[in-house]
Design a protein that fits this description.
Length: 271
């Protein structure tokens, strides 16, 4: 059901690791809607090779960048503008990684070197991306930047560990940078807070199936899929959402505002 929503727009998409990645679906949909873009991921992810399959499908070039490295980000924005032939209209930041979560370190037993990495990769990388883009004046007026978040930024999900802190910071950077970039260049910056989704990053969290099934039972619309998330990202990149900035937008089938559901009540009611 393509409508050329993004025809003529140029973008950079971070974080497509494999066909389950949310960024992968966003790239497929952006391509269908007429956008041109570059794909980027950390060198270690590129070695896995799957991204080349996506690049061929979307007629996109791949530029490696560790999102914590300013040098890599400068190269990414400079090369992307050369390849695409002008300033960037949209950026998807779809990056998350916690060595503490990966290695099973609980929130009260964090390794602080890992904690630093979690925050640098999952949150500060958004600031680095925005600051680099601003210095290079690489994003066009009314350009749109979307980063992906999770409701653990507002509420406690015990096994989400230090990623909760990273997501809180990510949402705060979105507001603070959104103010400055909006004033300077009318660039808008938002986070989309997505339902639990079966991806490599998602399934790395202990008890993911419990999270996933609970959220599905709580949400009046059920969990939002990666495909639906991609569609929402596209609307945020389009000209139909020009006045939306500095927001955390829940894309979760209603989970964030549901107190309890009949399904969950039934499980806890005495028979
Ligand atoms: N899956 C879920 O349940 C869920 C829910 C809400 C939000 N999110 C968020 O969505 C985003 C995308 O995750 P996903 O679920 O598609 O999983 P994913 O594992 O497919 O994507 C995570 C990406 O981050 C990349 N990355 C890690 N370190 C990097 C670095 N140093 N530089 C550049 N890239 C790096 C990985 O290579 C990978 O492509 C993340 O921000 C995640 O927290 C996921």
């Amino acid at each position: 059901m393509a409508t050329n929503l993004l025809k003529g727009k140029r973008g950079i998409i971070f974080g497509a690791l494999d066909p389950n990645s949310i960024a992968w679906k966003v790239a497929e949909r952006c391509h269908e809607e007429g956008a041109t873009f570059t794909l980027t991921n950390a060198p270690v992810a590129l070695r896995m090779g799957a991204i080349n399959e996506l690049a061929t499908k979307c007629n996109a070039q791949v530029i490696g960048a560790d999102a914590t490295s300013i040098e890599d980000l400068e190269n990414l924005f400079t090369k992307s503008q050369e390849i695409l032939g002008g300033k960037i209209d949209f950026v998807l930041h779809s990056i998350g990684m916690s060595p503490n979560v990966r290695k099973g370190r609980t929130y009260t037993d964090l390794d602080y070197d890992y904690y630093h990495k979690t925050v640098d990769i999952s949150a500060m990388s958004l600031h680095k991306t925005l600051q680099t883009a601003m210095r290079l004046d690489a994003i066009s007026e009314w350009g749109s930047v979307v980063a992906l978040s999770y409701i653990a930024a507002q509420r406690v999900f015990p096994d989400y560990g230090d990623m909760a802190d990273a997501k809180s910071l990510l949402e705060s950077i979105t507001r603070s940078f959104g103010y400055h970039y909006g004033k300077a260049k009318k660039v808008r910056i938002n986070t989309i807070s997505q339902s639990p989704t079966k991806t490599t990053a998602g399934q790395g969290v202990k008890g993911f199936d419990g999270f996933y099934n609970y959220a599905d039972a709580m949400s009046p619309l059920g969990n939002a899929s990666a495909e639906a998330c991609a569609d929402y990202c596209l609307t945020m990149f389009s000209d139909y959402t020009k006045m939306v900035t500095m927001q955390n937008l829940f894309h979760d089938g209603g989970f964030s505002f549901a107190g309890v559901s009949n399904e969950v009540m039934e499980k806890f009611s005495e028979q």
